């Protein structure tokens, strides 16, 4: 099988690439290497590839570059490249639009022209649902909770793009879905929640689980915005890769569909009031925390209702948060050179 991955040197992308390389597939990674950690991840992929990895340095904002790089015999296309942070989108909405909306359009057009039989996966986001003001939230001692949605937010939740990032990813999300309806492409949209795992070089604006772990491991201060009771459902990276695989194996049912993919109601954590004590236990000491005001568009709680993915794809998470956190902590500790160099 030949696989094409935009953003293939990023956190999710390199783990998807590893999955296919270990199966013996040919993998083409298309990446501009702008993300922190991308060159390190690319070198790792080269080491494990057995010569089956091809790297193309390019930018998804260039339609020509994508069209030239995408092979006509690609069987799977993973579109994982893009601008990833709400805060960055607010600072530079044009770049955010060009990366996420235009970049996704460019990718779809390349597939339509070059490899129309390929399965196309789009890494979308729960941010397409916006603030979800209709979902009533109650405040507890350590976390927020939905008043009447015990399973979380389903795909039936109305779209309500909030922030330039929400708009640009939502635009791509809907284009990917519509190219299945209008042009018959075999596209699948995965609206992902908080993904965490090895080879994640998290920063404050994106990849918060890894960012907090890195800061705690190396004695750096942690900034908490809001009251720290915000709740997210978290999903271990291998479980996400498995979700993609399950969608491919059930493509006749999955094509043209959208799926909420996250840890679900059994894998939720409040970002500091509950996560903080876990980190301090791993670090073996109290952690320095700085407080800041709520950030625009920050959801009090987001939890994915993953029952559609369970029903249609036969998928559900396998890794609980405690197990995943220990694995991430161990990986960070064993690879300190990546995090201590200037």
Structural shape: globular
Number of strands: 15
Number of helices: 13
Point out poorly predicted stretches.
Answer: none
What keyword list fits this structure?
342 residues; alpha/beta; Rossmann fold; seven-stranded parallel sheet; four-stranded mixed sheet; 13 helices; globular
Overview of the molecule:
The chain is α/β, with parallel strands linked by helices and 342 residues long. The chain has one domain: NAD(P)-binding Rossmann-like Domain (Rossmann fold, 3-Layer(aba) Sandwich), CATH 3.40.50. Helices cover 41% and strands 20% of the residues. The chain contains 13 helices and 15 strands. The chain has helices spanning 11-23, 38-48, 63-69, 86-91, 93-114, 163-183, 208-217, 237-249, 251-254, 275-283, 307-313, 321-334, 337-340; strands at residues 2-6, 26-31, 53-57, 76-79, 119-125, 137-139, 144-146, 186-192, 194-196, 222-225, 231-236, 257-261, 268-270, 289-292, 301-302. Strands 3-2-1-4-5-8-12 form a seven-stranded parallel β-sheet, sandwiched between helices. Strands 9, 11, 13 and 15 form a four-stranded mixed β-sheet that branches. Strands 6-7 form a two-stranded antiparallel sheet. A hairpin with a 4-residue loop joins strand 6 (137-139) and strand 7 (144-146). Helix 1 (11-23) runs parallel beside helix 2 (38-48), helix 7 (208-217) runs parallel beside helix 10 and helix 7 (208-217) packs across helix 12. The longest helix is centred in the N-terminal third of the chain and has 22 residues, at 93-114. It is globular, with a radius of gyration of 19 Å. The model has no long low-confidence stretch (mean pLDDT 95).
